[in-house]
């Protein structure tokens, strides 16, 4: 009982896991049969995707994202930036229509003002910082500036001499924009938005950049890149580009602005001049990128600052002009089928059901019995799982052990939460598996319903009317190490007192 109480207590004192890097996904819409916002949100939920970036502020999409817990970065499209940069009233109007009208139901966390303005719309460069300032002023007036960050995504091509990273600097043509921009980011607690495409770096320099280095594959020691000024070792292009951006900022004396990668990815198909746009390379790049980001290990220059990254992109956009690769950056086809199956074993629950068609949440066999009991109690109580199949005489009563019963209950919770990210952790005692734990007539939720009719339990499937979102679902999101340590400490105290 004490354990259960502590579980509730922890809900109150749980610290938000700030600082943990996340993976998001860009949602481009240049698609002949664009899925409806509802279909897109269903795909995001099924894949455990918790962060998205939109290239506009589409009202129907923002409504579909309401009350999903998904964090949303919206964008001021380039064709609206001149108006906003020239008139604070236009900016205020934009914020009213596209932000104030949707929060807090839709969790808008950032506004990307324009896209690669310096390189794709240079005549708007002189008003870029005004546009950011006007948007910021409107957010301040609405008291939303703490929760919504304002910035503008850059192409990494504005960084010159980017290897070795320690010698990098921003193209000096843009200093009159970059200096006030960095001041703005610093004073508002925002971050530099950067698009990082090792694919293009490799395409343009394939004699000097090995493919393995672009794809995060291990390199022989003689091929490892070493920055001779800092002696930092670079094992992949992504880290080198991000560090070049840190050094370019410090060249202008800005040393405390974090970086978020607003786009990164690899195309899965190309024409004859794009031989490295293949399914295998795309899968390798994106799988390794996701593992790299979620490992939260930062870059050689800033090893303690994880780099949150938005993958480019959710869907293949068949209507995009240009070479074949332009239409093949997506993780999914427009019908929701995956373009390839990411290799993400042991890297959390995002895209969890991409690794196979069925995943389950099970108790780790070596887990502490008291923690398993607490997880079981929570799932069957506040978690609103139907635990009646665990009762004596019911199909899942045997084997009558804490680990078996906890496995049933936490899996039922995980399925009930649509396998959302963070719902299979339970303080580290649970993990996702592809092995169906059903046994005998005890059929686990998530195993496909084929066998449900052959059992005599009435409600083996999770109850559809329980829309629980207790503290665990929020609390278990993101890095749980700190929480785990707290729990362990609290538990040891309890054990000592007993
Ligand atoms: C625009 O700026 C002017 C001058 O600074 C100020 O008086 C006015 O209130 C601002 N309008 C809005 C909508 O913020
Ligand atoms: C919105 O997202 C932020 C950043 O992840 C988070 O701190 C906050 O709790 C979220 N708000 C809601 C209402 O979910
Ligand atoms: C720097 O930017 C200017 C303006 O876009 C461009 O003309 C010039 O070529 C860039 N310099 C380099 C070295 O790329
Ligand atoms: C950065 O700071 C150094 C030392 O204070 C100064 O000499 C240099 O001019 C500054 N650079 C810029 C771009 O402000
Ligand atoms: C994960 O991070 C740890 C340190 O935080 C680091 O030692 C390790 O090399 C990283 N692993 C990968 C695959 O990046
Ligand atoms: C997943 O389902 C698809 C379509 O039903 C099938 O083609 C594929 O082989 C399945 N993958 C696995 C790993 O079972
Ligand atoms: C992922 O799981 C959801 C719900 O279980 C299912 O609807 C969807 O088809 C799955 N996606 C893939 C790619 O297997
Ligand atoms: C249902 O489960 C039973 C017991 O595990 C098994 O023998 C049977 O083959 C299953 N039926 C189907 C259709 O999967
Ligand atoms: C129904 O439950 C009884 C008692 O647990 C069990 O003996 C029997 O096998 C179950 N029937 C099916 C079809 O699972
Ligand atoms: C779900 O609905 C049923 C019937 O409407 C009701 O008896 C049950 O208490 C509900 N369960 C929850 C968890 O709300």
TrEMBL record:
Xref: InterPro entries: GH, Glyco_hydro_17, Glyco_hydro_17_plant, X8
Location within or outside the cell: Cell membrane
GO biological process: carbohydrate metabolic process; defense response
Entry's EC annotation: 3.2.1.39
One GO CC term on file: plasmodesma
Keywords (A to Z) from UniProt: Cell membrane, Disulfide bond, Glycoprotein, Glycosidase, GPI-anchor, Hydrolase, Lipoprotein, Membrane, Plant defense, Signal
Membrane topology note: Lipid-anchor; GPI-anchor
Catalytic activity: Hydrolysis of (1->3)-beta-D-glucosidic linkages in (1->3)-beta-D-glucans
Domain of life of the source: Eukaryota
One MF annotation (Gene Ontology) recorded for this entry: glucan endo-1,3-beta-D-glucosidase activity
First and last residue of the signal peptide: 1-19
Gene3D superfamilies: 1.20.58.1040, Glycosidases (3.20.20.80)
SMART domains: X8
X8 domain span: 359-444
Pfam entry (one): Glyco_hydro_17
Family recorded in the similarity comment: Belongs to the glycosyl hydrolase 17 family.
Protein name: glucan endo-1,3-beta-D-glucosidase
Biological source species: Psophocarpus tetragonolobus
């Amino acid at each position: 009982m004490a354990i259960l109480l502590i579980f509730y207590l922890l809900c109150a004192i749980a610290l938000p896991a700030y600082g943990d890097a996340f993976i998001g996904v860009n949602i481009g819409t240049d698609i002949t049969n664009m899925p409806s916002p509802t279909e897109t949100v269903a795909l995001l939920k099924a894949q455990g995707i918790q962060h998205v970036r939109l290239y506009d502020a589409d009202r129907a999409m923002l409504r579909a994202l309401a009350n999903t817990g998904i964090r949303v970065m919206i964008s001021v499209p380039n064709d609206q930036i001149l108006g906003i940069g020239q008139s604070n009233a236009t900016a205020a109007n934009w914020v009213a229509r596209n932000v104030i009208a949707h929060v807090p139901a839709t969790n808008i966390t950032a506004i990307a003002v324009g896209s690669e303005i310096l390189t794709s719309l240079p005549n708007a460069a002189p008003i870029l910082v005004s546009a950011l300032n006007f948007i910021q002023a409107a957010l301040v007036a609405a008291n939303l500036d703490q929760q919504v960050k304002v910035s503008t995504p850059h192409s990494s091509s504005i960084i010159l001499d980017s290897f070795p990273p320690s010698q990098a600097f921003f193209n000096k043509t843009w200093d009159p924009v970059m200096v006030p921009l960095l001041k703005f980011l610093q004073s508002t607690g925002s971050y530099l938005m950067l698009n990082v495409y090792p694919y293009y770096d490799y395409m343009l320099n394939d004699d000097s950049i090995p493919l393995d280095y672009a794809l995060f594959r291990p390199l022989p020691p003689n091929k490892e890149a070493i920055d001779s000024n800092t002696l930092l070792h670079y094992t992949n292009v992504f880290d080198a580009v991000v560090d070049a951006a840190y050094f370019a900022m410090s060249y202008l004396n800005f040393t405390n602005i974090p970086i978020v990668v607003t786009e990164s990815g690899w195309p899965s198909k190309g024409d004859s001049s794009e031989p490295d746009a293949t399914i295998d390379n795309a899968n390798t790049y994106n799988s390794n990128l996701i593992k790299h980001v979620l490992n939260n290990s930062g870059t050689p220059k800033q090893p303690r600052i994880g780099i949150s990254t938005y993958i480019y992109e959710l869907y293949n956009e068949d209507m995009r002009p240009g070479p074949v690769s332009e239409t093949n950056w997506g993780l999914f086809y427009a019908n929701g089928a995956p373009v390839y199956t990411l290799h993400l074993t042991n890297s959390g629950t995002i895209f969890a059901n991409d690794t196979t068609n069925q995943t389950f949440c099970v108790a780790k066999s070596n887990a502490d019995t008291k923690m398993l009991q607490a997880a079981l109690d929570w799932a069957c109580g506040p978690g609103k799982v139907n635990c009646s199949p665990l009762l004596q005489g019911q199909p899942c009563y045997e084997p009558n052990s804490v680990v078996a019963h906890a496995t049933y209950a936490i899996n039922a919770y995980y399925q009930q939460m649509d396998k959302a990210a963070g719902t299979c952790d339970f303080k580290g005692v649970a993990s996702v598996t592809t092995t169906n734990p059903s046994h005998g007539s005890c059929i686990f939720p998530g195993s496909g319903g084929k066998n449900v009719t052959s059992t005599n339990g009435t409600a083996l499937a999770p109850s559809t009317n329980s829309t629980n979102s207790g503290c665990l679902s929020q609390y278990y999101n993101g890095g749980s190490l700190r929480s785990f340590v707290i729990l362990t400490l609290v538990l040891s105290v309890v054990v000592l007192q007993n």
